[in-house]
Amino acid sequence: MTFKSRATRVAAALLASATLISMAACGSSSAKSETKADSNAMISVNNTEPQSPLVPADTNEMGGSRIIRYLFEGLVSFDAKGKQHMEVAKSITSNPEATQYTIKLNDGWKFTNGEPVTAQSFAKAWSYAANVKHAEKQSSRMSVIKGYDELQKPNAPDDAQLSGLQVPDDHTLIVTLNSPDSVFPTQISHQSFFPLPSVAYKDMKAFGKHPIGNGPYKFKSWTVNKNIIVVKNPDYKGYRTVKNGGIEYRVYSSPDAAYSDVEAGSLDLLMDVPQSEVKSFRSDSSIHAYSQPGSYYQGFIIPEWAPHFGFNKEGILRRQAISMAIDRNQIVDKVFSNTKSVATDFTSPGVPEHQKNLKGTANLRHNANKARELWKQADAISPYNQKFSLAYPSDGGHKPWVDAVCNQLKNTLGIQAVGDAYPTFSDLLNRVTQRTIQTPFFSGWSLDYPSAEDYMTPLYSSESADGHGTNDGDYKNPQFDAALLKAKSELDPAKRTADFNEAQEILLNDLPAIPLWCNNVSAVSSPKLNSVNFDYTNLPTYNTITK
Fold first, then answer.
1. What is the dihedral of CA 203, 209, 210, 216, to 10 degrees?
2. Residue 403, φ and ψ in degrees, nearest 5
3. Residue 368 — φ and ψ, nearest 5°?
4. Are 194 and 211 in contact (CB under 8 A)?
5. Measuring CA to CA, how many Å separate 287 from each of 280, 535, 539?
6. What are the backbone angles phi and psi of residue 448, rounded to the nearest 5°?
7. What does R_g of the chain's alpha carbons equal in angstroms?
8. CA distances from 449 to 40, 89, 222, 396, 538 (A)
């Protein structure tokens, strides 16, 4: 389900200009300069119960990814201003064709159990993720590496290694790709490329329940449906500075309850302001408020197997009609008090390739008359005599916008459109992962690294379909795949953007998902938490608690 992890970015030549976020409190209360910070205090933050054990390449939703991001460190990272920082990697060098990368590792990195982080720590983790027998949700991330197809065969040995990975010594990893990929140094910042210690392979599920990483925090405990606690890792060698003793990720089934706890001072940070508070949170004197455009995309997926919505003439007409029947601006204004940015393409303002006027962008604009015309054309092919159900999780405050969307569809197209609530996000995600859901369903995607590629390969490429990644609607279009491959093969940033635009125009026609808006950062913290900074992925950089 396309709620997932975040990572960082590599290679100055690839950085271009990323729109990153640095937040300052904008509520009426502010941290007092005379108070003293307690660098050993624990910080509490809201979260959802992770769907799966905390294994980097087997997690593709926010509840787990938020935690994994702080338990592990990758080859590189990026700060809130977009500056690249080498972490475990000392250098990353490409051949002229961008088909092979030589990665040199820094010495001295260790997992929290004392095991050194070596080139093999990456090579083995990537190969494990690529092996079809392990059915890891982020498996398709490894498809760029030579040997992936062999490890997707049922008879591949359980411990087979990707043939495109060579480890000449502990501090050198040579990566050979299936085809030119200029975005690869960016992609490896994703959490699926994090290293794993050798103990993980004894029992991966058990490891995920008590993960051992190399990040700024280390795992302490996990009480199901209550909390996950991580504490400061004193041996961390990376760029990120820890200014507190640890974090308690507290599970909430209701964002309203979490907001009340922030107001009462019993929860330090809420990263998602509930719908009931969006009109007033910025003027709430009892909290610190944060609001600024962000990179988190929201929409809904109409799976290719949904009746009347296949990728044929009828299905595409209906997809376009559904999209045009939705007045995004009205919902963002009336329901969200303009705390979202209306979608104009399949990316977000957080990437340099974000576009507002591509061929097909009109399909994302409200046009009731055109929507009715397209729906009528589709009915001439095959009449639509059923209910349009939009599935969503009850624990995320989605009901108001779902109701608004369904009312617009009902009023414009004359169809029965209703929301279909699932108790928790995990409940819905399990149905999506198992492909047992038959209706359109909510989808969200949080940026991993500032490149349009991160919104395309994982969500819409054929290699990410059929359970091999996060293409949860199983969209497959060879023309899109070819355009995406062309973009990834292009070394010139301007030409690469043009190729991404071509790929986006295919998506804007087919509409495998219906983009709605991108979330602004809308967060609140208690007065005892000093001002919080947010990076380009909308993740907070936790500060200290005042005494």
1. 120
2. -60, -40
3. -60, -45
4. no
5. 11, 21, 19
6. -90, -40
7. 23
8. 31, 17, 28, 24, 11
Distance between CA 147 and CA 511 in Å, rounded?
A: 32
Supply the pLDDT for residue 424: 87
Report the C-alpha gap between 100 and 177 in whole angstroms: 6
| Nearest C-alpha neighbor of 89 from the set 175, 162, 147 | 175
> What are the DSSP calls for 159-207, one per residue?
T---TTEEEEETTEEEEEBSS--TTHHHHTTSGGG----GGGGG-HHHH
Do residues 282 and 28 make contact, with C-beta atoms less than 8 angstroms apart?
no
CA gap 285, 155 in Å, rounded: 62
Q: Is the pLDDT of residue 166 over 90?
A: yes
Q: Which range is least confidently modeled, 14-23, 36-45, 187-196, 465-474? A: 14-23
Beta strand 227-232 pairing with 217-223: antiparallel
| pLDDT of amino acid 545 | 61
Structure token digits, residue 388: 């349009």
Q: Which residues contact 187 (CB under 8 A, 6 or more apart)?
A: 141, 144, 181, 193, 449, 453, 454, 457
Relative orientation angle of helices 368-381 and 399-413, to the nearest 10 degrees: 70
Classify the C-alpha dihedral 168-135-211-294 as positive or negative: positive
513: DSSP letter: E
Q: How would you class 386 by CB atoms within 10 Å of its CB: exposed for 0-12, middle for 13-18, buried for 19 or more?
A: exposed
Name the residue type at position 92: I
Nearest to 356 by CA among 479, 490, 518: 518
Q: What is the pLDDT of residue 176?
A: 98
For the chain, give the longest Cα–Cα distance.
71
Tens digits of residue pLDDT in 12-63: 232 232 222 223 334 433 333 445 667 888 999 999 999 899 999 999 888 9
- pLDDT of 494: 93
Cα separation, 221 vs 296, in Å, equals 28
Distance CA 541, CA 547 (A): 19
Percentage above 70 pLDDT, the chain: 91
pLDDT for 107-138, tens place per residue? 999 999 999 999 999 999 999 999 999 999 99
Which residue, chain included where needed, has tokens 């396309």?
A: 2
pLDDT at 387 over 50: yes
Q: What is the pLDDT of residue 295?
A: 81
Pairing label, strands 42-47, 246-251: parallel
Cα–Cα distances (Å) from 145 to 22, 70, 181, in that order, read: 34, 26, 10
**Do 141 and 187 touch, CB atoms closer than 8 A?**
yes
- For 505, residues 6+ apart whose C-beta sits below 8 A from its C-beta are 358, 359, 360
More confident residue, 198 or 523: 198
